Amino acid sequence: MFNTHLSGSKRWFYSSFFAVATVCIIAFLRDYTFLSLVLLSLCSLGLIATDGNKKSVHVFLAGFILGPLSEAFCVHFGAWEYSNAFMLGIPLYLPFVWGNAALYIKRIVFHWD
Predict the structure, then answer these.
(1) What tens digit of pLDDT does each residue of 62-112 get?
(2) Cα distances (Å, whole numbers) of residue 7 to 23, 70, 97, 107
(3) Cα 51 from Cα 71, distance rounded (Å)
(4) First to last CA, the chain
(5) Beta strands in 37-88 (DSSP E)
(6) Residue among 80, 103, 104, 101 nearest 90 (CA)
(7) Residue 63 in contact with residue 107, Cβ under 8 Å?
(8) CA distance 10 to 26
(9) What is the rounded distance in angstroms from the CA atom of residue 15 to the CA atom of residue 110?
């Protein structure tokens, strides 16, 4: 579907780059919501393209939906709170972070298999 020609080491490099970029975007740019969303979207597209298959889209969407829902549940019941909450007590960028994390975890599991 996408970059199926990438070698294993290149996939690791790109996946790691986008995973570290995701963490840095949230660490340093979380107060700039629009910029964070744009950059996180690019990281998401990069991670999906790095894996190069439809399953990556499904894994991303599962993380994108289920991760924030579980956090919203915990926030609702007072486990923690976000200073820049948008909807359901969570930040607007959080679904992208969860989706990207799901893809990176998929990459790690794939490496161990």
Answers:
(1) 999 999 999 999 999 999 999 888 889 999 999 999 999 999 999 888 777
(2) 24, 35, 25, 13
(3) 26
(4) 22
(5) none
(6) 80
(7) no
(8) 24
(9) 12
Residue at 41: amino acid letter: S
Least confident range from 2-6, 17-21, 24-28, 41-45: namely 2-6
Contacts of 61 (CB under 8 A, 6+ apart): 99
Tokens 């490496």 -> residue: 111
CA 89 to chain centre: 18
Amino acid sitting at position 76: H
Torsion sign, CA atoms 91, 93, 97, 102: positive
107: which 2 tokens? 């990459």
> What token pair was written down for 86?
């948008």
